Structures are given as structure tokens and as C-alpha cells.
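ligand=S-adenosylmethionine
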Amino acid sequence: MGTTADLDRATGLGQTNEPDGTTGPVRAHAPGQPAEQEPEGTDLAAEHLLRIINDAGAGILLSIGYQSGLLDTMGALPPASTQQIADAAGLDERYVREIVHGLLSTGIVEAAGEGAFSLGPAYVPVVTGPGVDNLARMTRYLTLMGEVTPKVVEAVRHGGGLGYEDYPGFHRIQAEESAAVNDASLLSEIIPLTGEVGRLEAGIDVADIGCGQGHAVSLLARAFPASRFVGLDFSPEAIGEARAEAAAWGLGNAKFELADVAELSDESAFDLVTAFDAIHDQARPADVLAAVRRALRPGGTFLMVDIRASSVPAENAELPWAAFLYAISTVHCMSVSLGQGGAGLGTVWGVQRAERMLREAGFGDVELKDLDGDPFNAYVVARP
Ligand SMILES: C[S@@+](CC[C@H](N)C(=O)[O-])C[C@H]1O[C@@H](n2cnc3c(N)ncnc32)[C@H](O)[C@@H]1O
């Protein structure tokens, strides 16, 4: 818990009479020591900090509410008591009550009469459902970050990084996050950005590097039966899941291989290479981009989907989720790269640096495209 001085500062209760007769804030000081004048704006800074701490608390409640199914249940119920909500969700009432009361304080939950609660109508689309609009899904990263924080603090002290195995459930969470986007728009909006739909229908060779659990590959293989697809990843767990989905779908034109894509030795083997959120956490990103360039046939296309941000840190102050990106980077993306002795590009490497690295890898034609409804990602279409 914070100190009394923290609370006093944020609530204005710590104001004292100054020697000149004015009233001003004082820095907390030891008994018997003279009070020190605080820099201007310290009250506002303290308020800001308390808002951050409070919002972080709301993020944790949302993550638990999402993962336990509480939010989806509330979205489907009329105003209800915490006992009715708990019964409908199959959850423990005491926990439900605590979470509902916490979210009530944020405005995400509304009180509807004596002892009855519901999600605020405007929040229903953004905290429930399987689609891309459900932002509560992203709060799982907050709680995942908490699990590995002690190891990250050690890395901050001594250098080095973490391994993918340090993040329990990472591949599943990542796969669910990207499946929501890909189910909604891979075929209808993302792939058309490459200009390759016609050739995919006719039959070409496609590789997806850092494919994770491979859902994008399976969606493409099902949609374009004349083309041949390979998903590459160095995680046995992810490749196992990818193979299972392709088998369950009966796909004969999709295969998945365990491979370090920095070591990719294929030359002129593919007409289209895709990388979904799989370059910035590479240990050797420059080698991977050069390998992709070599693996493309003449006239081939590389679609690189990666985080949309600026390579100029000050410019990211404009980005409403920049701090979240830097947190993910510190705790995961940069850290797993450093853990392999890698470059540690970081999640926020930015589109300017991405373009420069693509050109250095031999891509002469680099286009940055937007996708309506996905402000988080940059869609880069590159050709040799
Ligand atoms: C952030 S995940 C993205 C996964 C997937 N493309 C998606 O959008 O859900 C990055 C993936 O790259 C894989 N990866 C990282 N470095 C790799 C390397 N050198 N070779 C192969 N896979 C790699 C990781 O195992 C992980 O599955």
C-alpha cells in the first residue's frame, strides 16, 4: 500500500501554509527535517500516478473477468445480482462480487436497481465476444507480464533475457489474439493488400515465417487449394498445434516445419512469404530479412505485418497505447531476443527502421499500407 503522503498529495490534503503566507504542497520529509518545496505540478503528477495505478488495477480485474468467462456471461444477462451472475457463469459468488464492485467503480459495470448489476451498454462490444472488438482479451498480457516480472527485474539488473519457455501459455494467448484478427480479415482484407490473390488462386508456393500455431496458414490453405503452404517456427509446441489444426481441417496443401528462420537456406523457393508479428522479436532480424529475400522467386512478394509505431521515441507520445507496447517489449519481445544473445530490436522498432532494414536486406520496393480497423499494425508489402 502507498504512504499517507502519497494519498495526501493526490487529494490535496498535504497542502500546508508556506512562510510567505501562501499555501503549497510539501514533499514528505522526516520529522525534524525542514520541508522542501516541491516542483510545480507535483500534485498533478501524483494524480496521474494514481490514475495509472487504478487503471492497472482495472486491467487486472478485466483480465480475470475475461479469462473466467465472467464478462461474457454478464454481457448476455439482464441486470442481475452477483449471485445470479455467479450461478449463470458457474463461478464463485464472493469473487464475482469483488470483481463486479471493482468494475462498478470504473464505470464499466453499472448498478441497475437494488443489488443488480450489468455491463454498461457501450462497454458490451469492447469487453465481450470472440471478435476483434473485444479489447478485454488484450488484458491477458497484463497478467502474463506480472508472472514473469521477477525474472525481468533480474535481467534489468544483470543483462541477458528470457526464453519463450518462461511465458506460460504464451503461444496460446498469441494464437487467440491473432486468430481473432485473421478470422475477421485475413482473406477479405489483409491478403488483398499483397496483390497476390489471383496468383494464389492459380497456385503458388507460400511460406509463413514465425507461424506460431499456424492458424493463418490453415485459413490460407483452405481458401486457396491450388497453392502450397509451409509454416515455419522454432517452437515445437506451436508447430504441434499448427499440425493438429491442419489435420483436423483435412488440409493436404499445408505443412508445418520446425525451423530457425534465421537459418533458412531455401533459394528462390517461394512466390509469397508472410510474417505476422514475427520479425521484431527475432534474435537476428537482419539475417531473417535477408533469408526471406533469398527465398523469394523473381517477382515474389513479402508481406510483413508488424507493430505500427515510430522509430523516433518522442513521436510515440501520440500513440495512445505506446506505454503498453514498451511494456510488452521490455517483458517479452525485446527480452526473448536478448535471451538468445540477439539484437533486442523491441516491439517499438518502428516503421522507419523496418523500412531501412528491408532495403538493406535487398528489397527495393517497400510499401507501407493501412488496414481499416487495425490501428495496431503496419502492413508492409515488400518486393526485391
Ligand atoms: C509473436 S509470435 C507470432 C506468431 C504468429 N505469427 C501469430 O501471428 O500469431 C512470434 C513467433 O515467432 C517465432 N520465432 C521467433 N524467432 C524465431 C526463429 N528464429 N525461427 C523460427 N521461429 C521463430 C516464435 O516461436 C513465435 O511463435
